[in-house]
Amino acid sequence: MRPERLNPLFAPVTALPGVGPKQDKLFRYLLGRTDTPRLVDLLLHLPASVIDRRARPKIRDVVPGTVVTLAVTVDRHRRSPPGRSRAPYLVYASDDTGDVILTFFRAQPDYIEKLLPVGAQRYVSGTAQLFDGTLQIVHPERVVDEAGLAKLSLIEPVYPLTEGLALGSLRRAVGQALQRLPQLPEWISAEVMRRCGFPSFADALNRVHAPVELTDILPDQPFWSRLAYDELLAGQLALALVRAQLRRPAGVRNAGDGHLRRNVIDALPYALTASQREAVAAITSDLQQPLRMLRLLQGDVGSGKTVVALLAAAAVAEAGKQAALMAPTEILARQHLKTIAPLAAQAGLRVAILTGREKGKERRDTLARLAAGEIDLLVGTHALIQDDVAFKALALAIVDEQHRFGVRERLALTGKGDAVDVLVLSATPIPRTLVLTYFGDMDVSELRDKPAGRQPIDTRAVPSNRLAEVVDAVGRAIEHGKRVYWICPLVEESEKIDFLVDAEQRFASLKARFGARVGLVHGKMKGGDKDRAMAAFASGDTALLVATTVVEVGVDVPEASIMVIENAERFGLAQLHQLRGRVGRGTEASTCLLLYREPLSELSQARLRVIRDTTDGFRIAEEDLRLRGEGDVLGTRQSGLPGYRIARAEAHGQLIAQARDEALRIMQDNPSLRGPQGEALRCLLYLYERDEAIPLIGAG
Ligand code: ADP
Ligand code: MG
To answer: Which ligand sits nearest to residue 304's alpha carbon?
Structure first.
């Protein structure tokens, strides 16, 4: 139950005067919500910049192009001449040093006469410009008298907006929301408050929305930082509450005698790398512990994570329990199954798949076998967390590319068993701060060495005006029996940009030239068609596969040795690396051609240079961080932390570890969140929408 004192903040924005259905829609869009935003959502929408109206020069001293607030006397009005309503309405004004013209387009004469009566003293604020040698302010944003000046905020916040939403109405709504801010208990410990010099929650909100100094709205200043810390603490506390559930009942062990693992290893056509062996050992030891496992397995593309996951599942099956492997896309789920199925069959491990595509009888059969314990490892997508999916004894949840899944999904999967161990697979080296942010304290295994026999990839950047040569070269390669990926940045319909060649078009033109040896796969195709296209390429029936980024992660056709990436400048570094990782998986030397369109921005140049110069995923991730900020490592465009509205990796990296420490301390001192401090912390969890962890709070 949400603490009652929070109710005013959870009132819908439509409860504010002047906020109607139209605004409701705009606010939803702006604040990224599917339902009507609450006041708290509005208050946590922080300004991006400010307008500084404090400059109060004499007219003579005005710097054109700047925002000024002038004290003037109104001299005369010049209405738009009759019949020329598009000519502006001009108000001539002056001080003892010079003249200024206040210009209004499509103005209501009555309104202006009232606003700026001739002979009156007024304060006008806006951007001053020089026009035909005369100083002008077009549509002054503020016109007030002496009394009004006293109330005028000279530093005004500017918010990120959405089309159709006026800055003024957003400001008014925020202002009203601020007035309804209830008295809240302090949830941050006195010690952290003192050490970080944090203001109270209410002070912080008031100052970022009604800044007194220009710096008040900067993320690294105390006001914003306080709110960022709140958000991080809420995140860490929620993770810690989840983690606190992780003790398993005494005597329960999730790894067996090793016989299935040995079978799998015997069935492998290769030897495990040293780091694969270490990872398996660490996981197996976790599975034996009385604490539940929470481990991240990081490894560059092609480093062989799938087989490690399979061995973990085998260990669990030996103990008579079940494992689930959840991938973010259907293609990836099938890809895992393809790697796993033959090994599992030889090892005597029962594997099945469940995605959105399995329906009707097939699905019912799988669910029945799952419930009866006749499936050891279930591979799938989000479909795994549907309500009617019930395991007999789920003991291990393996989540591939976890950052695409939220905490909610992770909880949903682990909730399908008792004391489920969690193994997260990530192809993107995640910086320590981000691991902390998203997983809290988590153990990490890294696959640093690549499987033996891998050939280097020769990467080149080629301007797109040499497309014809590239097509010729691809033609020759196909003749010689090579297999080629041709990647097009088909973006979602909504973000489609005219000049991008989309996959369908490129497919048509290549097919016209090379005929039936060309295949196509993209995200909008039906599942069955996608599989067929992938299978045809894997078997060599097609030699050239035109694809969108659906092949980005996990797809594995070791025979493919050439990749062409069109509009390579449109891709992020991590994505290019992921894409390129689809070649260089076999024993053949591979080539990657990055076709780019000129002119290249500096950032694109830098990216292409990095990707050309190295294939080391860890280095690429570092460069990516450097070039674009941490948010992008997780594949989002803003510089913020995905899932976090206020905390920023650059400004608040230091606070993450502090928040983690405080969360751990809370879990030691007051794990049930009791008493006044507990209530304050519950408020925090609700305010920052981490309350999904509250039902997990233990009774003891
Ligand atoms: P990723 O880490 O990108 O998920 P995969 O698990 O898909 O990598 O493995 C990539 C390829 O490497 C697969 O074809 C797999 O069979 C192969 N592989 C995995 N481990 C080894 C190894 N130790 N030696 C040789 N090949 C390996
Ligand atoms: Mg993989």
So the answer is: 1
Spatial distance between the Cα atoms of 633 and 403, rounded to a whole number of angstroms: 10
- Those residues with Cβ within 8 angstroms of residue 433's Cβ, 6 or more apart along the chain or in another chain: 630, 649, 653, 656, 657
From the CA of 623, how far away is ligand 2's center (Å)? 22
Domain annotation for the chain: domains and CATH numbers: 4-50+161-217 (no CATH), 54-152 (2.40.50.140), 259-447 (3.40.50.300), 457-614 (3.40.50.300)
**CA 214 to CA 216: how far, in whole Å?**
6
pLDDT digits (tens, 9 = 90+) for 82-109: 777 678 999 999 999 999 999 998 888 8
* Best CA proximity match to 615, nearest among 579, 648, 649, 666: 579
Query: Which residue reads 């099938």 in tokens?
Result: 334
Which atom of ligand 1 lies at the shortest distance from residue 308's CA? 6
pLDDT at 552: 54
For residue 171, give every residue at least 6 positions away whose Cβ sits within 8 Å of its Cβ, in sequence order, or none.
156, 157, 159
Read off the pLDDT of residues 440-481 as tens digits, 9 standing for 90 and up.
777 889 898 888 777 789 999 999 999 999 999 999 999 999
- Total residue length of the chain: 700
In this structure, the residues whose C-beta lies within 6 A of any atom of ligand 1 are 270, 272-273, 276, 299, 301-307, 339, 427, 451, 554, 556, 558, 585
**Rounded to the nearest whole angstrom, what is the distance from the C-alpha of residue 8 to the centroid of ligand 2?**
47
For residue 698, give the 3-state DSSP assignment.
coil
